[in-house]
Amino acid sequence: MSLSTGTRGETVPTVPSANPAVDTTAGVDIAALLERGRALSTPVLRAAVDRLAAPMDTVAAYHFGWIDAQGRPADGDGGKAVRPALALLSAEVVGARPEVGVPGAVAVELVHNFSLLHDDLMDGDEQRRHRDTVWKVHGPAQAILVGDALFALANELLLELGTVEAGRATRRLTAATRGLIDGQAQDISFEHRERVTVEECLEMEGNKTGALLACAVSIGAVLGGADDRTADTLEAYGYHLGLAFQAVDDLLGIWGDPVATGKQTWSDLRQRKKSLPVVAALAEGGAASRQLGELLAADAKSTEFASFSEEEFAVRAALIEEAGGREWTSQEARRQHAVAIEALDGIEMPDLVRAQLVALADFVVVRKK
Known about the structure:
This protein has helices at 30-49, 56-64, 82-93, 102-123, 134-138, 140-159, 164-190, 198-223, 228-255, 258-261, 267-270, 276-284, 287-301, 310-322, 325-343, 351-365; strands at residues 127-128, 131-132.
């Protein structure tokens, strides 16, 4: 796994093909896959949001980027749309039409955005997708209420299908949501601890990110009639893909370019997050690791932390890198990516669908935002 040498802005891992002579993803149009996910799911997503009582419908529309803070139509950044793309592909794994996966795609997006609304408030994040977050524009109460409403809508949307498959899909979605909430609770608790093990950090990130991606890539298949073994195998792919995704996110959370990420410089360091690079660096035990540990322990007690300069955060980032946290995390992203791809060998599916799932996994790990 290689990373660029720039200080910020070019931190994404590169994931070479396991066998460069045989590139099974050649010709896969990632942009088209993501756009198909948006095109099929967005009308259903908008219709679901329209069910919300005022002013929650307007607040949700702002969050999704459909309107600006004054209520005027906008064309905001709605995110990467990886989860909808995965949900539609998962329906095709079992021979169903991609449209079969649309209710699952929308339900997963609703849960994902429920978590974003709450996470932004809990983390004190003021920017998401290059705009002020909902809690900053509309207040904490609306961020909480709209998040809760989106979660309720997700379950409502699936159960309205009235099929056995919809019931099975809902059970998987609620289990994934519980895992996601467990992960957020762990993440918050880690901020108040001096030391977190790598194993604890991976468990937290598996819950916080892996669980919902696992659900996304199985829910369409379940709606298409997949048996539990097929759905569980797809979930394994999604879970490890989620860990790879989060490892890259952790790199971007420290070294990402704010222009690309839409967040502050050194954003995870500002929030005292025990992300993978930090935890791996602290576990290394060398001189840089010990110095980093001393600084972070002092930071936790400092009354001036909020006014730290760019240079002070840069020092911490440099120590993390010197202690190997950046390189270890990039290697972990590659390892989890490989495990995700290997999981696909456990079930039969059309060659094109497999190539698209592999290409999406590559896209998730090689990114700048």
